[in-house]
TrEMBL record, chain A:
Principal location listed in the UniProt entry: membrane
GO cellular component: plasma membrane
Any one GO MF annotation of this record: transmembrane transporter activity
Subcellular localization: Cell membrane
Record field: transmembrane: 43-61, 68-86, 92-114, 121-138, 158-179, 209-228, 240-259, 266-288, 294-312
Signal peptide: none
Organism: Kribbella albertanoniae
Keywords assigned: Cell membrane, Membrane, Transmembrane, Transmembrane helix
CDD domains: TM_PBP1_transp_AraH_like
Topology term for the membrane: Multi-pass membrane protein
Protein name, UniProt field: ABC transporter permease
Tree of life domain: Bacteria
InterPro entries attached to this UniProt entry: ABC_transp_permease
TrEMBL record, chain B:
PANTHER family membership: ABC TRANSPORTER PERMEASE PROTEIN YPHD-RELATED-RELATED, INNER MEMBRANE ABC TRANSPORTER PERMEASE PROTEIN YJFF
Cleavable signal peptide: none
MF-aspect GO terms: transmembrane transporter activity
UniProt key word Membrane: yes
Superkingdom: Bacteria
NCBIfam families: PRK11618.1
Membrane disposition: Multi-pass membrane protein
CDD domains the UniProt entry points to: TM_PBP1_transp_AraH_like (cd06579)
Residue intervals passing through the bilayer: 12-30, 42-65, 71-88, 95-119, 168-187, 218-239, 272-292, 298-318
Organism in which the protein naturally occurs: Kribbella albertanoniae
Keyword terms: Cell membrane, Membrane, Transmembrane, Transmembrane helix
GO cellular component: plasma membrane
The protein's name in its UniProt record: Sugar ABC transporter permease YjfF
Annotated localization: Cell membrane
């Protein structure tokens, strides 16, 4: 198994075991009303929006950037979809509109980063702050409720006995893996993340790749936004997707992708997102008081990050440290 | 135009001057539009309402100047109000409460600094964990708003210090101004301040020059934690309550104020006075919106976002021309 996936997988397994200890039937999956039912399915289902947002975030982080605006994009796309449906637009048209607007917003982020040359964290901070206001402007500060049965399917419906959201996330995951690992796109993204200037001199169109990546991140956030809005049948400009950017960045980091860019692991990201979702579920199922949820989360995050830190491992387990476990850039230093 | 001003004033002061110009322009425009806007008290009120943000933004400036970021400030502010309220209700003397709260803030900051420096965890992630931790501690202490009835705290909340001519400020403003003055001295006149700039400019060069980079990085996060706790105390004076949901999203306001003030997020360049102006501009936007009356609160976010965009583009133009 890939070493970078080891720690997140261990943490995920420990969390699941912990659940099994407190709730013996935790891992069982049964068929009810013609579809699968169980805690594991719930984790996947409620984790689907986070998995989607994290996938987009992985590619952005692989280019050495970061996208803080995804939470606002989630809110905007959910608000637009609900507004359009409440005004009588068809479900497909409404969803298409929401996702298209998300794409445009992402391209705007990409434009600021790639063409104007603004630091990604600042460029996306603009949309993070203003986007939340825009979402509230769209919903007029209210919570828009929709009762369309077709719309409800996206976040709450079932297909082939599985929740539709899981399938949607799987489709996006498969498409992303195909595009980045079967085609050259992944290599190009890693190359831009490794050294944007060198890639440009080598003949890569860094700008186009950067804009594509930010547009893709916003596209994923847009789909996630529609999914979240559909699941609760309403759009809340203030709270939809609040802090999801932080969870997504955490998922990517837990999955072993470095914030410095140049390398990424989609499998790690999915694991990371599932760790975060399982953590949330665990907190409810083992009866940790909801007030201490964040405390628990902080401890797990700190533990995972420390375990992944080469400097920490070198101090904590000096004898077990081998050059193989060091990240690639460090081995050159050791060799020197 | 830019070239002309560049010849007269050093280019490094240009972002700060633009921010100052914008503040004056906004104030004059507001004065022309709204009855009773054009008064010194309106400016003083901006200080009174944003004293806590000013203190927090000062700490954030130190961190950003070294090229780092501190996402935990809002949560630490909330934790400070919570701890203060609980300890005061338990009958602790106010002075002891203040000392304990400040120590907690500085300690949290130092802890995050250690994670960042010794274990090489990115500032973004380490302070994110700090943000969850502090907010989580708040909720663990209690989920309800706890009122503060201590006479010393209520006195600090209600005292009006007259400046003559019917003008007044609150004690919090004095504390905030003192913090700004001390921070400006430390940043621009001491060896520690120069090391902060050097570390932000190029950490490796600073280390090779023999500068105490480790101590400086731990120092800036400790300062930020301390400032957040102090900001929390000022917020406790202002709100007279401790609550786990105080100051949600304050870290964004603080970062926005620092960026609008002309400090580069890459570190190594910026001035404390810019941060002060940035906080004033954020406060003035809220004042304008409350004077307008018909605009909903979410326009604040849209305006702040737009301003951020304009300032970042401007910085970009300035830094490109330098080459």
């Amino acid at each position: 198994m890939n070493r970078r996936l080891l720690w997140p997988a261990v943490v995920l397994a420990l969390l699941l075991l912990l659940n099994l200890f407190f709730t013996p039937g935790f891992l069982s999956i049964e068929v009810k009303d013609g579809h699968f039912y169980g805690s594991l399915i719930d984790i996947l289902r409620f984790g689907a929006p986070l998995v989607l947002v994290s996938l987009g975030m992985t590619l952005v982080i692989a280019t050495g950037g970061i996208d803080l605006s995804v939470g606002s994009v989630v809110a905007i796309s959910g608000a637009l979809a609900c507004l359009a449906i409440s005004q009588g637009t068809g479900v497909l048209a409404a969803v298409a509109l929401a996702v298209a607007v998300a794409l445009v917003l992402g391209a705007f982020n990409g434009f600021l980063v790639a063409v104007i040359g603004i630091q990604p964290i600042v460029a996306t901070l603009i949309l993070m702050v203003a986007g939340r206001g825009l979402a509230q402007l769209i919903t007029d500060g209210q919570i828009i409720t929709v009762t369309d049965a077709g719309f409800k399917v996206i976040g709450g419906g079932y297909l082939f006995m599985l929740p539709f959201g899981i399938l949607l996330a799987l489709v996006v995951l498969a498409a992303t893996v195909f595009l980045t690992r079967r085609l050259a796109l992944g290599l190009l993204i890693e190359s831009v993340g490794g050294n944007a200037e060198a890639s440009r001199l080598a003949g890569l169109r860094s700008r186009g790749i950067l804009i594509t990546v930010y547009a893709f991140a916003a596209l994923c956030a847009g789909i996630a936004g529609v999914m979240v809005a559909s699941n609760v049948s309403s759009a809340d400009g203030n709270n939809a997707g609040l802090w999801i950017e932080l969870d997504a960045i955490l998922a990517v980091v837990i999955g072993g992708t470095l914030l410095t860019g140049g390398r990424f692991s989609l499998g790690g990201t999915v694991l990371g997102a599932l760790v975060i979702q399982t953590l949330t579920t665990t907190i409810y199922s083992i009866g940790v008081p909801p007030e201490t949820t964040l405390l628990f989360k902080a401890l797990v995050v700190a533990a995972v990050c420390l375990l992944q830190s080469a400097a920490f491992r070198a101090r904590a387990f000096p004898r077990r440290e081998r050059p193989v476990t060091q990240p690639v850039q460090d081995t050159t230093e050791v060799a020197r | 135009m830019t070239a002309l001003t560049g010849a007269v004033v050093p280019r490094k002061y240009l972002p700060v001057l633009v921010t100052a110009g914008l503040f004056v322009a906004m104030f004059i425009a507001g004065g022309a539009r709204y009855e009773g806007f054009f008064s010194t008290q309106v400016v003083l009120n901006v200080f009174i309402d944003n004293a806590f943000l000013l203190v927090v933004a000062v700490g954030m400036t130190f961190v950003i100047l070294t090229g780092g970021i501190d996402l935990s400030v809002g949560s630490v502010v909330a934790l400070a109000t919570m701890v203060a309220a609980v300890l005061l209700n338990a009958g602790w003397p106010p002075l002891a409460v203040i000392v304990v709260v400040l120590l907690i803030g500085a300690g949290l900051g130092l802890g995050m600094g250690c994670m960042i420096h010794f274990f090489e965890i990115q500032p973004f992630i380490a302070t994110l964990a700090g943000m969850f931790l502090a907010r989580g501690l708040c909720y663990t202490i209690g989920t309800d708003s706890i009122p503060i009835t201590d006479p010393a705290f209520t006195a600090a909340a209600q005292t009006q210090i007259g400046l003559g001519g019917g003008l007044w400020i609150s004690p919090s403003v004095l504390i905030a101004v003192a913090v700004v003055a001390i921070a400006a001295y430390v940043l621009h006149q001491t060896r520690f301040g120069r090391t902060v700039y050097a570390t932000g400019g190029n950490e490796q060069s600073a280390r090779l020059m023999g500068l105490p980079v480790a101590r400086t990085k731990l120092g800036v996060y400790t300062i930020s934690g301390f400032c957040s706790a102090l900001g929390g105390l000022l917020l406790a004076f202002y709100m007279l309550s401790g609550y786990g949901l105080h100051a949600v999203g304050l870290e964004l306001d603080a970062i926005a104020a620092v960026v609008i003030g002309g400090t580069l997020l890459t570190g190594g360049s910026g001035f404390l006075i810019g941060t002060v102006l940035g906080v004033l501009i954020l406060g003035l936007i809220q004042t304008v919106i409350s004077f307008q009356g018909t605009l909903s609160s979410w326009w604040t976010k849209i305006f702040v976002g737009l301003l951020l965009g304009v300032f970042i583009l401007l910085q970009r133009v300035i830094t490109t021309r330098k080459k």
